Amino acid sequence: MALTKSFKDLVQRRVAHDPKFAAALLREGIDTMLTGDVDTGKAILRDYIKATVGFEKLREATATPPKSLIRMFSPRGNPQALNLFGIIGYLQKQAGVELHVAEGRVDNSFSSGRSSVCSIIINKNMEYNNKRQ
């Protein structure tokens, strides 16, 4: 019998051990939403949240119940802009990155061979911040 692992488990392990991959996953979730595929973007962000800060810690930062946060990022969720941007701001701060929306398309090293509308600026203290958490 072959050993199989859940794709989400593999992503969570990769995020835990590779800060550049984690930053790229965050960018990909936001970029996907910006290009019009909101449901896929929410799914990517949900997986990113689970693999990094978790919904309980996000609750502490946003004063929003975990069930509401989970619902926001579900396929039928419809987060308000104020909540969504607050969450994205918190996730960027925790990851030690700054995402910027650029006019047109920009190239990123983790873009799987395609351009994106988001660019990443990695905070010089990212590794230090990640070790402290």
What features would you describe in this structure?
Helix content is 59%, strand content 13%. The longest helix is centred in the N-terminal third of the chain and has 16 residues, at 19-34. It is globular. The termini are far apart. It has 7 helices and 2 strands. The chain has 133 residues and is an alpha+beta fold. Strands 1-2 form a two-stranded antiparallel sheet. The protein has one domain.
Search tags:
133 residues; alpha+beta; two-stranded antiparallel ribbon; 7 helices
Quick description:
This protein is 59% helix and 13% strand. With 133 residues, the chain is of the alpha+beta class. It has one domain (7-132).
How are the SSEs placed, and which strands pair?
Layout: H1 7-17, H2 19-34, H3 38-51, H4 54-62, H5 66-72, H6 81-95, E1 97-106, E2 116-122, H7 126-132
Antiparallel strand pairs: 1-2
Helix pairs in contact: 1-2, 1-3, 2-3, 2-6, 4-5
The major β-sheet equals: 2 strands, antiparallel
* Overall number of domains: 1
Percentage of residues assigned to helices: 55-70%
- Give a count of the beta strands, DSSP E runs of length 2 or more: 2
What is the 3D shape? globular
Derived structural class? alpha+beta
Stretches with pLDDT under 50, minimum 5 residues:
109-113, 124-133
SSE order, one letter for each helix or strand: HHHHHHEEH
Question: How large is the radius of gyration?
Answer: 15 Å
Q: How do the strands of the widest beta sheet line up side by side?
A: 1-2
Strand content: 5-15%
Name the average pLDDT.
Answer: 80
What is the first-to-last residue Cα distance? 39 Å
